[in-house]
What we know:
The complex is a heterodimer of chains A (91) and B (623).
Chain A: H1 3-7, E1 11-12, E2 21-27, H2 38-47, E3 55-61, E4 69-73, E5 76-80, H3 82-85, E6 88-90
Antiparallel strand pairs in A: 1-6, 2-3, 2-6, 3-4, 4-5
Chain B: E1 6-12, H1 18-26, E2 30-34, E3 41-48, E4 54-59, H2 71-81, E5 92-98, H3 103-113, E6 119-124, H4 126-131, E7 135-136, H5 138-145, E8 149-151, H6 161-172, H7 188-205, E9 206-207, H8 214-223, H9 228-269, H10 274-291, H11 294-310, H12 313-325, H13 334-339, H14 344-350, H15 357-366, H16 375-386, E10 391-392, E11 396-397, H17 398-425, E12 435-437, H18 446-480, H19 497-509, H20 516-522, H21 531-539, H22 549-559, H23 562-574, H24 579-589, H25 592-619
Parallel strand pairs in B: 1-4, 1-5, 5-6, 6-8
Antiparallel strand pairs in B: 2-3, 3-4, 7-9, 10-11
Helix pairs in contact in B: 3-7, 5-7, 9-10, 9-11, 10-18, 11-18, 14-24, 15-17, 16-22, 16-23, 17-23, 18-24, 19-20, 20-21, 23-25, 24-25
Amino acid sequence: MTDTNETRPQMPLGLAQRGYSGVIQHLSAKDAGSALSDIELESRLIELGFVEGARVEVLHEGLVGRDPIAVRVDNITIAVRRREAMAIIVA
Amino acid sequence: METPLLHLALVGTPNSGKTSLFNALTGSRQKVANYPGVTVERKEGFFVTPLGRQVSVVDLPGTYSLRGRSPDEEITRDFVLGKASGETVPDLVLCVADSTNLRLTIRLLLELKRTGRPMVLVLNMFDIASRRGINVDAERLAKELGVPVVTSIAVRKGGTADLLTLTDEISARLAAEPQENSWRALSVAELRATQREADRIIADCVSLPSRPDTWTARIDAVVLHPVAGLLVLALILFVMFQAVFAWAQPLMQLLNSGFDALGEFVHASLPAGLLQSFLQNGVISGVGSVIVFLPQIIIIFLFILLLEDFGYMARAAFLMDRIMGGAGLHGRAFIPLLSSFACAIPGIMATRVIDNKRDRLTTILIAPLMTCSARIPVYTLIISAFIPARDVWGFINLQGLVMFGLYAAGIISALLVSFLIKFFMLRDYAPAPFMLELPDYKMPRPKSIAIGVYTRAKMFLHRAGTTIFSMMVLIWFLASFPQPPLGATEPAIDFSLAAIIGKALAPLLSPVGFNWQIAVALIPGMAAREVAVAALGTVYAIEGGKEAAEQIGQVLATKWSLATALSMLAWYIFAPQCASTLAVIRRETGSWTWMAVTFSYMLVLAYAASLVTYNVAVALGAG
C-alpha cells in the first residue's frame, strides 16, 4: 500500500462516516458478526470487488442507524450493511 | 442441408446488460418458463445468424461467481457445466460484460474459463464506455484472456452485428476444439488471486477516465439522501398508485362492459339452459373477472421494469432495507408488497427480484394480506350499509376511517406474520445480508421494456386461460348443480351443491356470526373476492348483481346484525379465498405445500379475527 495510508490508523469500514475515503488493507470476516460464515462473507466481499488495495469511499448512508451504506469501490457502487462492512479493514 | 440448433448461453454479473442483449438478439421470439423443480425463471430465445444458422440462446441468471450460493446461481453453474437436468450443454458461452465496469466480469470470466466451454467475451454497452472516455484494447484483452472478445451495443440497431458474425465463425470450428472441465469451487485464496489477475489484465488493457459518471452522482445526491430520498420514493409510489387505480380504471371498465356485453350476447342468442349459463356465468364472467385486472398488471409491470432498467430499484431497496428489516423482510421485498395493493398476482410475480429463496418465500406468503383492489367492492358494500357516514372528532369521516383501518390491519398483520415466519419456521435461517450493486443510471430502453411487459402480460393471460379457467368452471358447476326442480320459486343457487356445502358449513361459521347465505356466497367468492358481492345478491334473490350494490346493502342492513357485518369485514382482511392468487403461489413456489400453507394460515387468521370481532361486538350490544 502507499505510504500515506500506513500513517493512518486502521479501522473497519463499518464504522466509517459518510465522506470517508481510504484504501482496503485486509479483510477480517471473523470480526463482522455477520450471519454468514467467515469464508462465505469473505468470498462475497471479494466477488463484489472488496479486495486489498481497492480504493473505497462512503457515498451515502441510510436513515435508520445510518445503515446501510453505499460505498464506491474503485469504479462501482455497492450497498452493504454496516455489520458486513465491519469485515473490511481500511486505512 | 439441416445443421443442428446451436446452443448459446448468456452468463454475466447482474446489471451487465445481459437481458437487453438477450432481447436485442431474439426480439419477441422468447419462451419464459421455470427450470424443473425450482422457482428460477428460464428464458430462452431464438434467432438466425447471417449465415443462416438456427440458434437457441438461454439467458442465465446473473451471478458474480460459479459458487452457486442461491438457486439462481446454481442453475447458472450447472447449466454451464452441463449438469442441469434436461438441458443441453451450451455449445458456446457468451460472457456478457458492462464495458464501463469490467472488474467483476473479468474475474467471473477467468473462473468460467476453467469449465473448458468455448467462450466469447461480449463487451456490452460499448457506446457508454466510449462516451465516458473508457478505452478498452479489445485485441490485447483477447490475447491476455485467451478468448475472443467482441464489442456490442445491445440497444442500437445493428449493435450486435459483430457478435453475430463471430458466432458464425466460431460455430464453424466448434467440433475441433477439445473440451475439458477443470473447474472446482474456488477457495478464498484462489478467489483473491483471480481478482488480482483480473485487476492486472484490466490495468494492462483498459484506460479509465479520470472523471466518474457525474449524472449518477448528481441523481444519487438527491435520491439516496436519507430524507429527500425517502420523499422521492414516496412521490414515485404515489404516482404508481395513481396510475394503477386511476389510469387503469377506464380500461378496466371497458373490459368489464365488454365482458358484460359478451355475456348478454350469449344470454340473448342462446336458449336458456345449461349451455347458456355455463358460457355466461362460468366462462365469460368468471374468466372476465380476472382478465379485467390486465390493465393494472400491465401498468404495474411497466413501472417496475422502467424503474429496474433505469437503475432505481436497487436504490429503493437501499432506502427501505432497515425500515423493513425490523419485520424480518429484505429491502427488495418492498416493491412486490407494494404491487400487491393492486392485486396479489403481479405482486407475487414481482417477488422474482428477490434473489434469496427464503426471503422470497416470506414475501410471497404475506403478499395476499395486502388489501388488494378486489376487496374494495366488498368493503364498500358493507361499510356503506352498516357504518354511519358521520364525522368523528369533527373532521374525520367514520366510513373513511373504517376503510383506512382495514388497510392498516392488513399491513400490520402482514408485518406480524413475516416476523412470526422468521421466528418460528425459518429460525435456523440466517438473514441474507444486504449486499447489492447500485448500478449507474441508464436511460430505459423502450424496446426492452415493451418486450418485458409483453412477456408478463402473456404469462398472466396464459394463466387466466388455464388454471383460473378450470377453477371458474368448477365453481360454476358447484353453484349450478343440481338444477332446481320445476316451479321452484327460490333462487336456483339454493338447490345447488354450493348451497349444500354452504348449509353444511353454516354450523362451523355460526360462531363468527355468518348465516348459511354468507357461507354460500363465500364459495363463488373463491373465484375472486369481489364475486362474493354478486353472490350475496343472488342468494338474497336480488336482481342486478354488482350494479345494484346499494340495493344489496339495504337488504343486508335489514338481515344482518352489525356484529355480523363487522365480522364479515374482519374475515375479508385475511380471507384466503382467491383461486387465482393460490394458483400463482403454487406456480411461483413450484409447490402445492406452500399454496396449502398460505390457504390454511389465512383461513385460521380470518376465522380467529372474525370470532373475536363478532363476540366483542355482541358483548358490546351490536348483536
